């Protein structure tokens, strides 16, 4: 269960919608019957892109003879798939490495062996430095190298210190093995599908363009093929992923980049697949919210009424300093157009308090834009200066306590809005996708169109089905419903 827990807390930290979502639909661990089989434990930090990557690495390794384990203590190979977005996220990795070092030492005393790999955005950002700071690490692999994960692990197990941080993103997707039907089934009825990776936006606070490289879109044909495979394995809901998912562009002739298709067109194509019942996408940037995508929210019934559209701040001066390429008024205009296309859409966002130079007045503009939009959910963070980003070099850094006070005020407002949104659902009849068993006997957890967890009575055999329910009551993060 540790892995699920890690994903839950860390995803929320990374500011992606539904940290909880990352763990949905997990099936119980498959029994390991072969005593000599090597076991791999992957711990995932950060965003859903990392969840997707961890699944692909697990697929590659298990197809190469490994067996997954949910217990680090049982593992022969531990991979930490890391996040570099804020200082706290990166530092957490080193405390985990400390724990693993003790495990490794204990193992060595008994003549056993444990191989430790650091993958993901910390691996990309820090490279060799990781070996210097934590010599116990055997393998350092950046996000674009996972198609070679099995070979890299074999070298590390042979005693070599392995480091790979090249950018070869097109290779990654073309060469990573497809999951087997069994592997997809084990992950449940709601699945992630990465369609785009990397970022060219260079917001001045953000490490992603450096850790994930330039924006690259996967070809439509490759994406559709993967969606068909998912559906064949029983997946009902697909969430398209990308650091800038709505910057996706391509064509269906096999050439990913440069084509005229946009995300709205891709959603139309995916909606045509029978068996796909629900579509979502995340995370979007306001400047790539084109008319085709907005219209898709009006025209595609399978596209869920939920949009995660981070604004980060409400002051035009700060938005400019952040290099966000739009004003507060332009953001509000997009929200208005989206709501016109799909009146019941839930809007979610990300916010940063205390970006360098943020005055009280600038912060009030953030509170103002939050009041104007009325969010259904949101993630908010204190600004964390990241080495190598332009924001970290700015002189007028805001004191920690001011960032903290602003964050507390902002989160109070966002929390009120989320509770009000949930309360508004009471009495409504809605369709939910049943994803997993609930905490108590006889309970199931489903997902509402607006991404809320919905608790309902039911039988395990119903998992994977849609159910019409009436919402009876609401809490801060979930709804309670009755069958109709
Ligand atoms: N691609 C997405 C977000 C990626 S990172 C976008 O463009 O919006 C997820 C969130 O982490 C960001 O939206 C931002 O709110 C937050 N974040 C990124 N860098 C940060 C930093 N240095 N300090 C605090 N929060 C940060
Ligand atoms: Fe980071 Fe900005 Fe790119 Fe989002 S758009 S990943 S915040 S640089
Ligand atoms: Fe973190 Fe990398 Fe995702 S920095 S938020 S894991 S893209």
Keywords:
single chain; 484 residues; alpha/beta; six-stranded parallel sheet; five-stranded mixed beta barrel; 17 helices; 21 strands; binds S-adenosyl-L-homocysteine; binds iron/sulfur cluster; binds FE3-S4 cluster
Task: Summarize the structure in words.
- This protein is of the alpha/beta class and 484 residues long.
- It has helices at 2-13, 48-63, 87-109, 121-126, 129-133, 149-157, 169-175, 181-186, 208-212, 220-232, 263-271, 291-299, 316-321, 328-341, 360-373, 390-393, 400-424, and strands at residues 39-44, 67-68, 77-82, 115-120, 139-141, 162-164, 190-194, 196-197, 216-217, 237-241, 249-250, 261-262, 278-282, 306-308, 346-353, 377-382, 429-437, 443-447, 453-457, 466-474, 478-483.
- It folds into three domains: 21-167, Methylthiotransferase, N-terminal domain (Rossmann fold), CATH 3.40.50; 172-424, tm_1862 like domain (pyruvate-formate lyase- activating enzyme), CATH 3.80.30; 429-483, OB fold (Dihydrolipoamide Acetyltransferase, E2P), CATH 2.40.50.140.
- It is built from 17 helices and 21 strands.
- The strands form six sheets. It has a six-stranded parallel β-sheet with strand order 2-1-3-4-5-6, with helices on both faces. A five-stranded mixed beta barrel has the order 17-18-19-21-20.
- A hairpin with a 3-residue loop joins strand 20 and strand 21 (478-483).
- Mean pLDDT is 90; it is low at 1-34.
- The structure holds S-adenosyl-L-homocysteine, iron/sulfur cluster (SF4) and FE3-S4 cluster (F3S).
């Amino acid at each position: 269960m540790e892995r699920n827990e890690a994903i839950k807390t860390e995803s929320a930290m990374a500011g992606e919608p539904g940290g909880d979502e990352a763990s949905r639909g997990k099936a119980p661990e498959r029994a390991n019957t072969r005593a000599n089989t090597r076991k791999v434990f992957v711990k995932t930090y950060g965003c859903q892109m990392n969840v997707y990557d961890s699944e692909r690495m697990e697929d590659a390794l298990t197809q190469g003879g490994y067996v997954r384990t949910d217990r680090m203590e049982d593992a022969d190979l531990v991979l930490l798939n890391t996040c570099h977005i804020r200082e706290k996220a990166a530092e957490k990795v080193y405390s985990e490495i400390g724990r693993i070092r003790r495990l490794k030492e204990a193992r060595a005393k008994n003549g056993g062996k444990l191989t430790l790999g650091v993958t993901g955005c910390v691996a990309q950002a820090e490279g060799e430095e990781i070996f210097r700071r934590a010599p116990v690490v055997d393998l350092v692999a950046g996000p674009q190298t996972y198609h070679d994960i099995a070979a890299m692990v074999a070298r590390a197990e042979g005693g070599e210190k392995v480091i790979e941080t090249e950018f070869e993103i097109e290779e990654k997707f073309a060469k990573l093995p497809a999951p087997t039907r069994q592997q997809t089934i084990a992950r449940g009825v709601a699945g992630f599908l990465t369609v785009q990776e990397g970022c060219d936006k260079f917001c001045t606070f953000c490490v992603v363009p450096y850790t994930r490289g330039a924006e690259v879109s996967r070809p439509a044909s490759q994406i559709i093929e993967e969606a068909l495979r998912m559906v064949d394995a029983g997946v009902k809901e697909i969430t398209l992923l990308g650091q800038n998912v709505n910057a996706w562009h391509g064509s269906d002739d096999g050439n990913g980049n440069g084509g005229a298709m946009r995300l709205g067109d891709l959603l139309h194509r995916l909606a045509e697949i029978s068996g796909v019942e629900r579509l979502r996408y995340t995370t979007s940037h306001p400047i790539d919210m084109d008319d085709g995508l907005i219209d898709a929210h009006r025209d595609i019934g399978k596209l869920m009424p939920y949009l995660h559209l981070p604004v980060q701040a409400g002051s035009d001066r700060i938005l400019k300093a952040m290099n966000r390429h739009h004003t507060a008024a332009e953001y509000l205009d997009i929200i208005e157009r989206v709501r016109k296309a799909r009146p019941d859409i839930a809007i979610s966002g990300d916010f940063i308090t205390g970006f360098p130079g943020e005055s009280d007045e600038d912060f009030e503009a953030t509170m103002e834009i939050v009041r104007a939009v009325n969010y259904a959910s949101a993630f908010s963070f204190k600004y964390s200066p990241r080495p190598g980003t332009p924001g970290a070099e700015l002189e007028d850094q805001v004191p920690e306590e001011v960032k903290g006070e602003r964050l507390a005020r902002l989160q109070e407002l966002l929390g009120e809005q989320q509770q009000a949104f949930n309360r508004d659902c009471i009495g409504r009849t809605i369709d939910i996708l049943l994803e997993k068993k609930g905490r108590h006997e006889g309970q199931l957890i489903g997902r509402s169109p607006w991404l809320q967890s919905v608790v309902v009575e039911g039988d395990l055999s119903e998992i994977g089905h849609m159910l019409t329910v009436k919402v009876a009551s609401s809490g801060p993060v979930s709804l309670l419903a009755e069958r109709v």
